[in-house]
Amino acid sequence: MRQRLILVLLIPMTVVLLVLAGAYAWSVARAVQEEVSGQQLGDLSYFQSGVRQALRAGSPDVVAGEMTRYSELYGTSIAVFDRSGALWASGGGRFDDLGGDLRGQIELALSGRRSDPGPPVLPWSMGELVAVEPVFDDGNVIGALFISANADRVRAEILTHWSVLAAACALTILLLLFAVVRLANWVLRPMLRVDRAMAAVERGERDARVSDDTGPPEMRRMIRMFNQMAEEIERVIQRQEAFAMNASHELRNPLGALLMRVEYLATGLDDSWEEDVEKTRAEGRRLTQILDALLGMARSGRQDSSFAAVDLVDLVASRIAAWAPVSADRGVSVELRGGARVLSLTDRTSVESAFDAVLDNALKFAPAGSAVEVTVERDAAGCGIAVRDHGPGLEPDELELVTSRFWRSPRDQNVPGSGLGLAIASDLLGDLNGGVQVQSPEGGGLRVVLRLPGEER
What we know:
This protein is of the alpha+beta class. Helices cover 56% and strands 16% of the residues. It is built from 10 helices and 11 strands. A hairpin with a 6-residue loop joins strand 10 and strand 11. The two termini are 35 Å apart. Keywords: Kinase, Membrane, Phosphoprotein, Transferase, Transmembrane, Transmembrane helix, Two-component regulatory system.
């Protein structure tokens, strides 16, 4: 943005400056040429009386000597043509090969008219400065006085003026660039402070504010609005953290009491219940881990996941065994496909929670007597846990909405649920550099894939 602002400000100023400089350069060139032309006309006026007397007397020697001295002194060519257009007297030089333009000017002077100003002399142009004046005697034209000067001096003078002008333009452009950069920095400095503060908020520094209230009025209003927004976000997050801490703390007591009651009841059961009691203990310990993670996240303001190499096949198999009573109660079998180890560097508790949400959703919509197929696989993109059911599935336009919070298909409104399962799974895997893919496979139903990184990250 800084570069674009500098260009937007600098380019119009530079264009205007160059246009004005070009017009001034042209006027300077014309002024120098007119000055030289004025000097030539003054010299012609000086010779007018002498040439008139010489033509009247018919003796070119009267003015030839003075014309020769003038030519040698100023490096110009001067000549007199008679009424017929023939060369009558000169101060040196050759005048027998005059071009058509010069001959036309002489004929114009012999007709009683002064020659028109010559074309503009520019540093890269060639040619000479020529002036021709008629010589009158009692109102009659008796000859023409011709003077020609080399244009090198004029071109050099114009080039000197243009060089000074170019240097002044370059210096002005540098000053404009300096001023525009300072102006752009003054305009954008508050925006850069806001950008840094927003990046700090994104990193978790909720107390980041923009303290320097400077810059244009619009930026000062934006800074005040940003600080107010940051304060409101901090208050909302603090309330959420307080709620999470209170909820996790309050849930620990009944959970602890429940586990103690399980241990008490287990003392009165025979060995045939040992497997069920152990599964209940495992679920209790898992709930305790979830509450500890929730409490730690609330205290630190972020999720502090414990990454380790996790065998996804073993993880899925243990969760399927935990869900076996639910699947049996609903008349749905859960089939695990893929026996090889699939390792992923991830957080086990988060993956278990995400898989539970997806499996719960599959068991909820799978018809009785069907099977939910769970596949654990590795590919070039990483690892994947696919859960496929044979339920009613979703329409193609609903696949993008299924991971939204509280979204439910209109035809499933009578099915118990809150519409948070896949949304929670998506959030959990997003924190693990993974994601959730929802597909409509051939044959109906729904296929949900939990994408996870491989063992090496």
